[in-house]
Amino acid sequence: MTEVHPREVLICTIARLLDGVRHVAVGASSPIPAAGAMLLRALQQAVGAAGPRISILGSVEHNFFTNGSAELFDCAGQGRIDAFFLGGGQIDGRGNVNLVGTGDYPQSQVRWPGSFGSAYLYYVVPRVILFREEHTPRALVEKVDFISAPGVSDDGVFRSGGPIALLTSKALFRFDKTRRGFELQSIHPGYDLTAIKDATGFQFTHDSQPEQTALPDRQTLDLLRGRVFDEVAETYPDFAAQMRRELREIERAPSHVS
After folding, report:
1. Does the residue 100 lie in any domain?
2. What is the CATH number of the domain that holds 73?
3. What is the pTM of this model?
């Protein structure tokens, strides 16, 4: 059996989460989400479909905007972006995102880049996927120190957008809008429910025996490692080179997959 890189699991999971979207936008520092969107497009084009439009801020090849974020915001407000990705220094169990810093604002102990347009996009993009590779109680907290973008809104507040999922290096969570909290959907290979609970600072619901996150088949891996990483390299050359280097190391190592 072919060894699968942990980040390939994330990329393939993102492609499944994006199934059905017409237009997905990706931030300038998001190589894994971008690869997931490109993989979905490649898979759909392989069977004769057009695949989604992909807008990557900072990309020359994969960005039809000419005025930076202003056009992105206009496009989202008009309902012409179906999916977007948000991360944060902290994410809590209600889907709140903190991009400002830790500690009591404005005397934050640690400062991050800032909120930019996260709150606006969180409100108007219908399918927001929260993505954070780090899965620790430091990153996934009970309550964020500062709300850059709220995961839920009060009754009576018009909101067409919001979180649908949280993807980390260890697991995939679905966001339950009725309960206003996360449900564990699947656990990535190498982890179990105890490990997920120990690494998560907020409470979440789960089945007694959660599913394992699906692994890609050989055809999908070939497409990812060939065409998709070629496309990713245009915007994220260091990421593509690192992935290919680590994949070569995996191929040379003795297989331990049963």
Report:
1. yes
2. 3.40.1080.10
3. 0.92
